[in-house]
Amino acid sequence: MPIEETRPLSNRSAAVVSATPVIAALTLGGPTATAQDAAGAVLAERLLNAIGGADAWAATPGLEIVEMAQASEEVAPRRVRFLRDLLQGRLRIEREDDESRTDVLVQAERNWRCRAGRLELEAPKSAEQLARRSWRSNVYVLYALMAKRDPALSYRAIGPLSFEVFDDGRRIARFDLDAGGGPLRWQRMRSQQPDEVFETWLYGPVRDFGGLRLPAWGTLLDGSLRFNYLRIGALDKPLPDSLWSPPAQGC
């Protein structure tokens, strides 16, 4: 399974939700300039302002996130630590298992996992897999790309507080905002099937986490996974490469 479409430590399959039909574009003086494009860019800026501002996100090469997360098949939430590389999309997840051992999952150039004291290695990714850009649709990475005014991104409004995000013309995400501009709902499209929704998250109100502002909690639309943030740290330098390599001596 591609790293961009792997649920963190969950055996649940992805919920597929019907995508909202796209409203027909209204031409505004040229084949690429539409009223929806302009309105979508305004909504994207409104979202960035609500989550801490473009400057803060553009200056952040990575995040450390600590949360309590619970899958629907679990009887109690677990403490989970994420390290998210916003420059290359790499992800490290550390989570205690039922026997208080640390379960580590890394999604990088080569995926690997330490589970129950054993090292599990996937085959190195092919050039085609590495060339896929679907990691860019991860919500945290997307915030950073939007803040940096990535030229491949474009936007289209589909409602007063709703807009879609396109990467090189391919639809990758949809945001629905609350009255303050914060994310109320986020949908992510499948990397190879942009008309099919991969996941839909519903969010609570944003709160301050040391400069960045993010929803304090969230849940998948189907209820299969939910979280409450405990801490979010914006890193001031890139995460070291050693975090992404399998342990030489095993787990």
Structure characterization notes:
- By secondary structure, the chain is mostly beta strands.
- The protein has one domain (30-237): outer membrane lipoprotein receptor (LolB), chain A (Clam).
- The chain has four helices and 15 strands.
- It has helices at residues 35-50, 54-58, 127-131, 139-147; strands at residues 62-71, 78-85, 91-96, 102-107, 112-115, 118-121, 153-159, 162-167, 170-177, 183-189, 197-203, 206-209, 212-215, 217-220, 225-234.
- Strands 6-5-4-3-2-1-15-14-11-10-9-8-7 form a 13-stranded antiparallel beta sheet. A two-stranded antiparallel ribbon has the order 12-13.
- A hairpin with a 4-residue loop joins β4 (102-107) and β5.
- The chain is globular, with a radius of gyration of 18 Å.
Q: Which range best describes the helical content: under 10%, 10-25%, 25-40%, 40-55%, 55-70% or over 70%?
A: 10-25%
How many helical stretches?
A: 4
| Span between termini | 23 Å
How are the strands ordered across the major sheet?
6-5-4-3-2-1-15-14-11-10-9-8-7
Strand content: 35-45%
| Uncertain residue segments | 1-33
| CATH topology (level 3) name | outer membrane lipoprotein receptor (LolB), chain A
Q: Please tell me the CATH architecture by its name.
A: Clam
Q: What's the main sheet like?
A: 13 strands, antiparallel
